[in-house]
Inverse folding.
């Protein structure tokens, strides 16, 4: 009950945090209007260079100043840093500089210099199908058949409008084909956008149940044990820099062979071989951090509500997700972070396809990577204490889209706490009890939002081990 109350409060709090930010902005504006003219400078122009593809309005949209603004002199250095971080948070530049040039008494020009990433990225991908590297290395004994090889063609800044166009073709453990397109702004004010996705996939092997907090797999050589189709359309609304709303309508259709139903009749409801449903999703994001992909300072929050309505192999489900992260600089190179993630699901009795909670993607406790913990409700709290040991930038690399190579290294101490509620846990022994772990590790952060986490963890069972994660969320 306490977990449910906490998640509910976080869902309500996220939009309120945006109102607090707006209130602070209004107070700053009032103080600026009352300040003497001698304490202010006039922003005559903003000159942008280096944007060979990206349109200028896309960059100007991220800035909290505009041509003709009056700026308090004492606020100028802080504003330069803030706007550099805002533009860099677009994740389409490898380098951003914002500089103020004094033109005369009380007059400044701003220079925004960017170095663009490689937007059209033909990728030959090699990805493991298992939940994480350690599961593949230890439990699956490095079975190369459990890998996916794909060819992805991405354009992350199509026509310079931040449009995202993706074609995915993948073979291996999971055969997949998909198309994705999104455009964040379709109006002159740059507030409204849309997106569409179509994906199909199939597998010869798939997990069908959880036994003692481990996935159990079934295989049908020569035929596909499961196949899926998904199509969705979304609408986004971004009224200000920090806030983003998204509405999405998604259709799902999944089919499994009799082999799965013989072992787990509740894979879908009522022993059905096919599941068809619609998802109605609302998502809200609050971005008040220095870097969305690897945050060191600030506050960010995500709330999401999902309503699932089915007519074959599914009935009804309502889910509420919440995430909030608080990041703080304690000293010159010392940082702390506190991140909470949680979910509530109603009703609690659901088909197996929608009960897994911890153990997939970024939803795990460090030290519990070998376990899957299913349940309707769960909560995760992660705390970190980091030290910036290395912050290098290798320059003059003779490659156009990797002209600079940032390398940042953060040794850390961490402690995790979690809980998963499941009325139907069966023989799984990690549900309905507090879980905790602690350890040491190092984060490597580099170009194109690359993140590598190497962590040595201990859990409440006394188990310990070295774990590797690539590009997972904090």
């Amino acid at each position: 009950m306490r977990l449910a109350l906490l998640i509910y409060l976080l869902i309500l709090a996220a939009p309120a945090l945006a109102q607090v930010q707006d209130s602070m902005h209004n107070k700053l504006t009032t103080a600026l209007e009352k300040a003497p003219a001698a304490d202010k400078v006039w922003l005559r122009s903003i000159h942008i260079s280096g944007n060979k593809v990206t349109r200028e309005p896309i960059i100007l949209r991220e800035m909290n100043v505009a041509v003709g603004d009056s700026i308090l002199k004492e606020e100028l250095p802080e504003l330069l840093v803030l706007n550099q971080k805002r533009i860099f948070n677009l994740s389409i530049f490898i380098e951003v500089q914002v500089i103020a040039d004094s033109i005369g008494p009380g007059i400044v020009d701003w220079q925004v210099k960017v170095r663009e990433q490689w937007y059209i990225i033909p990728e030959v991908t090699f990805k493991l199908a298992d939940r994480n590297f350690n599961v593949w290395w230890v439990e699956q004994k490095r079975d190369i058949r459990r890998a996916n090889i794909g060819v992805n063609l991405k354009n992350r800044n199509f026509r310079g409008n931040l449009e995202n166009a993706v074609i995915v073709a993948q073979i291996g453990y999971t055969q997949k084909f998909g198309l994705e397109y999104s455009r964040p702004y379709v109006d002159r004010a740059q507030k409204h956008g849309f997106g569409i996705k179509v994906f199909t996939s199939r597998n010869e092997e798939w997990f069908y149940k959880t036994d003692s907090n481990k996935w159990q797999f079934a295989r049908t050589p020569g035929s596909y044990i499961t196949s899926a189709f998904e199509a969705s359309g979304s609408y986004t609304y971004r009224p200000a820099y920090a806030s983003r709303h998204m509405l999405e309508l998604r259709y799902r259709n999944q089919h499994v062979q009799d082999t799965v139903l013989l072992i787990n009749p509740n894979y879908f409801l009522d022993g059905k071989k096919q599941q068809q449903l619609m998802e109605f999703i609302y998502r809200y994001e609050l971005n008040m951090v220095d870097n969305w992909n690897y945050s060191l300072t600030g506050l960010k929050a995500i709330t999401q509500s999902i309503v699932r309505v089915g007519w074959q192999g599914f009935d009804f489900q309502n889910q509420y997700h919440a995430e909030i992260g608080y990041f703080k600089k304690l000293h010159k190179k010392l940082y702390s972070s506190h991140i909470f993630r949680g979910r509530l699901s109603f009703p609690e009795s659901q088909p197996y396809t929608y009960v897994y909670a911890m153990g997939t993607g970024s939803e795990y406790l460090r030290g519990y990577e070998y376990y899957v913990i299913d349940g309707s409700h769960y909560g995760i709290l992660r705390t970190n204490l980091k030290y910036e040991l290395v912050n290098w930038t290798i320059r003059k690399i003779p490659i156009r889209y990797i002209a600079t190579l940032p390398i940042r290294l953060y040794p850390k101490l961490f402690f995790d706490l979690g809980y998963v509620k499941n009325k139907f846990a069966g023989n799984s022994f990690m549900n309905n009890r507090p879980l905790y772990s602690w350890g040491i590790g190092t984060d490597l952060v580099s170009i194109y939002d690359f993140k590598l986490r190497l962590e040595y963890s201990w859990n409440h069972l006394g188990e310990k081990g070295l774990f590797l994660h690539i590009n997972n969320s904090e």
Residues 2-34 form the longest helix (33 residues). The helical segments are 2-34, 56-62, 76-88, 133-139, 258-263. The longest strand covers residues 405-421. The CA atoms of residues 148 and 456 lie 27 Å apart.
